[in-house]
Specification:
Length: 198
């Protein structure tokens, strides 16, 4: 979902869309000489889009699971909802990343990251440059492992996330329900009686 490429007039960006119920895996630039053989690809990439819902996708073994960013300095990706996705084994960079990946890029605002399950990613959620707005929200996610949220979280609303060892029923077999959802509900995570589901 791309924007600001000079191919349209006033509304030069992808908008008003939904990306849902996809299975995505092995998305990488690590063997692409055009990228210097370095990992940088996202399974789902919102690059300057607006008003897009990304939900109920299963993504694994990619450089980044989902990214909301803008390639163009001074331009922004906005109003992106990333919810109810399962993202695993995106070890090169992150499960979810948002903001400009360097200081020459654009920004990300009104990004809502809600109810996702992230397991064994490089960083579960990576906050990049030009994303430090209080319109950005990270809420009610299950974030496995030690490095759950990396980058500068200043001004971003972060609450009700389960971090550390979520105690899945059987992650190795792909069962990411929680063994004890009532315990996590008491700690502030909002889950159904079977655990957080996509």
């Amino acid at each position: 979902m791309i924007g600001f490429e000079g191919t349209a007039g006033e509304n030069d960006f992808a908008r008003e869309g939904t990306i849902s119920k996809n299975k995505i895996w092995n998305i990488s630039t690590s063997h692409n000489p055009a990228y210097g053989n370095s990992p940088s690809a996202a399974g789902i990439y919102s690059d300057g889009a607006r008003h897009v819902m990304i939900e109920q996708n299963i993504i694994s073994n990619s450089d980044i699971g989902i990214e909301a960013a803008s390639e163009h300095f001074g331009k922004s990706t906005q109003d992106i909802i990333i919810r109810n996705n399962l993202i695993t084994h995106c070890k090169a960079i992150a499960g979810i990343a948002f903001g400009g990946y360097d200081k020459k890029r654009g920004s990300a605002s009104n990004i809502k990251i809600i109810n996702n399950t992230l397991y064994q990613n490089g960083s579960q959620i990576l906050i990049q440059a030009y994303a430090q707005y209080n319109s950005n929200l990270i809420q009610n996610n299950i974030l496995d492992g030690s490095e759950q949220i990396s980058g500068d979280p200043q001004n971003i609303v972060i609450n009700h996330n389960l971090m550390g060892n979520p105690d899945f029923v059987n992650a190795g077999d792909g069962n990411f329900h929680l063994k004890n959802p009532l315990k996590h509900t008491l700690l502030g995570l909002k889950v159904d009686l079977l655990g957080l589901r996509i």
